[in-house]
Design brief:
The complex is a heterotrimer, with 2 copies of chain A and 1 copy of chain B. By secondary structure, chain A is α+β, with helices and mostly antiparallel strands. Chain A has 2 domains: 75 residues, Arc Repressor Mutant, subunit A, CATH 1.10.10.10; 85 residues, Arc Repressor Mutant, subunit A, CATH 1.10.10.10. Chain A has 9 helices and 5 strands; from the N terminus they run H-H-H-E-E-H-H-E-H-H-E-E-H-H. Chain A has a 3-stranded antiparallel sheet with strand order 3-5-4. In chain A, helix 5 crosses helix 7. By secondary structure, chain B is mainly alpha-helical. In chain B, 57% of the residues lie in helices and 5% in strands. In chain B, strands 1-3-2 form a 3-stranded antiparallel sheet. In chain B, helix 8 crosses helix 10. The longest helix of chain B is centred in the middle third of the chain and has 21 residues. Classes of the chains: A alpha+beta, B mainly alpha.
């Protein structure tokens, strides 16, 4: 492949947004925009004729690689099993439960300085946190702890494997 | 700050030593210790005069070198003993060779096509209709993030709220979870049953401490028939 | 292009992480993994011969599209020089972890002859190193190892692809 065309392909592929001809032009001050455009149209043509899994498309004022629409069901299937992460709020709540367990919700609230109802519910649904028991005091508050799944997800043999705060602090000094 | 500058010159005392050995074209297996010690100390002086904050490790190695030098100066009493006695430099040579190997390995790593430096992956997010997130699937998460989240939180709390959480406390949490699981399943248990006939002292200790903690938290109740009778443990709240 | 090959191309392109044959296998329960692998190897070959801007590569236990290394300067220009790369100190620490894993901090300190707290923490934050457990010795020190991301970043198929340490081999002989 012609080098200029290959470079354009690399740029479009690595760009965080659909790449416009103007932006490319800034990188190649000596090159005519029409020429850049010609190369990109050639690439579009080539990908179309090849009938592979990806296409180069002109979208939103720029160029972008996309998977062929015919295969969207497969891509969706792949993405469905996409591992879900935790929000920072959920992670903080989880950290309090992990390190202070068994712990009542009021204590987690106090620790985080906000009402943790939402993130706690999410963690219970994700089966990272569970009800360990109830306290025999007025109101019989629920005590929360972490689950086996929590250990699995964080790749821990047991809770004693969790790094202690002191150990982390030592790293920072 | 000074520490950073120093790191730009040598990655550490072993790095400096290795540099001196290469500069003098010395056989690493037969280091002329007097010469190297002198040059090493000179370099340290130079670094110091440049007002660079020398890390303690540089001084530790200096004293090791001096120690080796003095041992090599000791008269050898009998030839046979010489055979048995290890070369005082042996340990240092081993350390240097290991360090050199890792230093090379580091350079080799750096010479690979590094992601986001030499090669790049697709950066544009895929345009797709909203996808349901499968709640049951998780990517493996990093414990480091969890600890950091907790640490950042307690940093904001009063000093009285701060507490050290150590391995012992977490071992106790493990035991508490296990005991509560069993109790939920079996309604009541004896202390002996909790021990599962294991005789590991730490295990017995943690089981005992966990029971005490659970009683303190009013999560369980323990009953004893008579003063030497069986201790039965129940959930405090069904 | 054969449809199955085109679908595989779309999937690899769409995946945010190097896509493993096992993961693809989950989407195609009736298909032999060897067949999937064969198609992917064919794709690798095709991209190589095409000499365009992107290559398909086998990294970190999976497959991923990447820009050709020859064009890194252009992509860097486009991305406006986000500084990448590790300091020599971090690289040395990483090398020790990679070759000695699972390894405790005290051993990394000893191998490097300095306190590695700072660089170790940086590597943990960059997710190149992770906590893998605790060593069963008094004090139960934390054991560190490399991550999948380490393989991804350094273009390694797996840890076995790391070159053997020269001097250590000599020592053992």
């Amino acid at each position: 492949m012609e080098e200029m065309k290959a470079i354009l392909e690399a740029l479009v592929f690595a760009s965080e947004i659909p790449l416009s001809v103007d932006r490319i032009g800034e990188l190649f001050p000596g090159t005519e925009k029409n020429e850049i455009k010609k190369f990109l149209e050639e690439l579009i043509q080539e990908y179309e004729e090849r009938k592979g899994g990806i296409d180069l498309q002109a979208v939103a004022g720029g160029y972008q690689f996309r998977t062929r629409a015919d295969f969207s069901q497969w891509v969706k299937k792949l993405r469905m099993g996409k591992p879900a992460g935790l929000t920072p709020a959920a992670l903080e709540t989880l950290a309090v439960v992990a390190y202070r367990q068994p712990v009542v919700k009021a204590d987690i609230d106090r620790f985080r300085g906000v009402d943790v109802s939402g993130s706690l519910k999410g963690l219970l649904e994700k089966k990272l946190v569970r009800v360990v028991g109830r306290k025999d005091v007025p109101g019989k508050p629920i005590l929360y702890g972490t689950t086996k799944k929590f250990l699995e997800v964080f790749n821990l043999k047991d809770l004693a494997e969790l790094p202690t705060l002191r150990e982390l602090k030592e790293l920072q000094e | 700050m000074g520490y950073e500058i120093k790191l730009d010159i040598f990655e550490g005392p072993l790095d400096l030593l290795l540099y001196l050995i290469k500069k003098n074209e010395i056989d690493i297996y037969d280091i002329p210790i007097a010469l190297i010690t002198r040059q090493y100390l000179e370099y340290i002086e130079v670094l110091r005069s440049l007002n660079l904050d020398l890390a303690g490790e540089f001084l530790v190695l200096a004293s090791t070198l001096i120690h080796i030098k003095s041992r090599m100066l000791l008269p050898i009493e009998a030839d046979e003993e010489m055979e048995d006695e290890e070369d005082p430099r042996a340990e240092l040579v081993k350390q240097l060779l290991e360090y050199q190997a890792f230093k090379e390995a580091a350079l080799q790593l750096d010479s690979r096509p590094v992601l986001e430096r030499d090669v790049f992956k697709r950066a544009c997010p895929l345009e797709m209709s909203a996808l349901p997130e499968d709640l049951e699937v998780f990517e493996e998460m990093d414990v480091f993030d969890l600890v950091k989240a907790f640490q950042q939180m307690i940093a904001k709390l009063d000093r009285t709220e701060r507490m050290e959480i150590d391995v012992e406390k977490m071992s106790l949490a493990d035991r508490i979870n296990e005991i509560m699981d069993k109790l939920t399943e079996r309604k009541h248990l004896t202390f002996t049953e909790l021990l599962e006939e294991r005789i590991d002292r730490r295990w017995i200790l943690y089981t005992f401490l966990a029971v005490l903690e659970l009683m303190k938290l009013k999560m369980i109740k323990a009953y004893q028939g008579d003063s030497f009778g069986v201790i039965r443990i129940f959930l405090a709240v069904e």
